Q: What sequence folds into this?
């Protein structure tokens, strides 16, 4: 094979290899993205089915139910417009309480319950996760009218 043809084959192989590597990297990135949705968006069916996502809002007072002798807990999460039930099996953060702003990572089950794999709570009384604050602000903006 002539040297010129060998260089052409090498360049084509490099371009194909880089293309395949880029494709794998983009696919892995897409699979690991966790989009944020408010309880209203979850109730409207905006999150993709079968995919993990984040939901955030305020824990509805009086909604926390713990299973005796187990780490299972369920609670309602609201954006002051719509409520979503969250089920979690694990140790909740120390700062978790009713009326608290939280973000949960997980997915919806077939019964319409958000099954959380991780629950994060705000770290002081003045802080609210930006996604939760924005979702609550949007709901209040809708309620105030034109």
A:
């Amino acid at each position: 094979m002539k040297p010129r043809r060998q260089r052409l084959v090498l360049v084509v192989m490099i371009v194909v290899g880089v293309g395949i590597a880029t494709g794998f990297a983009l696919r892995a990135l897409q699979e690991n993205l966790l989009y944020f949705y408010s309880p209203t968006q979850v109730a409207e069916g905006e999150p993709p089915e079968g995919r993990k996502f984040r939901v955030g809002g305020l824990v509805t007072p009086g909604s926390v139910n713990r299973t005796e002798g187990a780490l299972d807990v369920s609670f309602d999460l609201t954006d002051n417009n719509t409520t979503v039930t969250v089920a979690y099996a694990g140790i909740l953060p120390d700062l978790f309480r009713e009326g608290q702003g939280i973000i949960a990572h997980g997915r919806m089950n077939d019964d319409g319950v958000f099954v959380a794999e991780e629950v994060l709570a705000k770290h002081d009384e003045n802080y609210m996760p930006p996604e939760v604050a924005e979702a609550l602000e949007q709901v209040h903006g809708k309620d105030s009218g034109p």
Notes: The beta strands are 36-37, 53-59, 65-66, 72-78, 83-89, 101-108, 114-121. The mean pLDDT is 84. The two ends are 75 Å apart (CA to CA).
